[in-house]
Amino acid sequence: MSVGPEQRLSPEERANLVAYIDGELTDNESRVIATKLTQSATARQEAETLRKTWELLDYLPRPRASEAFPERTLTSIRAIGTRGSTWDKAARNWASQAAKASLVLGVASLSLVVGFALTRWAWPDPSSRLARDLSLAEHLEEYQDVESFEFLDELVKSKLFDGPTP
């Protein structure tokens, strides 16, 4: 990589120039900037200008903090601390809501199971009644031909059937 005498610093190198002057760059980054500074007069001029600017900043008057600065700082820190407790309250509130929701879900599930059990075992099954009364269902047409109970009583009294009389 040859660097010409008029090679300027790239925007990235210019951004890292303060860190280079303060010795805060990695070895590889420092080596790249040092190479460019040794081979380019324009880059050296930029670095020198920046160094002088930093030195001149030391001559400027330093502002003094107001008397209320410590109190404002502590108030800000306390506000951050109370925000943390707000998160705790929100987490507790969420946990409470989740517990209530699971309780409601549990009661609903239990109700569903009890309702199913009642309809399955306690409710009469119409098909079982048909199975019990199958003989009645088989002779239903014959029973429908009989018009009344008096007719059946007359049949019993007529002695046409060999059964015991009541």
Order of helices and strands: HHHHHHHH
Helix content: over 70%
Low-confidence stretches: none
Could you tell me how far the N terminus lies from the C terminus, measured between alpha carbons in angstroms?
129 Å
Q: Please, what is the average pLDDT?
A: 82
Estimated radius of gyration: 51 Å
Defining key terms:
rod-shaped; 166 residues; single chain; 0% strand; 8 helices
Describe the structure.
- The chain is 73% helix and 0% strand.
- It is mainly α and 166 residues long.
- Among the domains are: 47 residues, no CATH class; 32 residues, no CATH class.
- Helix 2 crosses helix 3.
Quick rundown:
The chain is 73% helix and 0% strand. It has eight helices and no strands. It has helices at residues 11-21, 27-39, 41-57, 69-122, 126-132, 134-138, 140-145, 149-157.
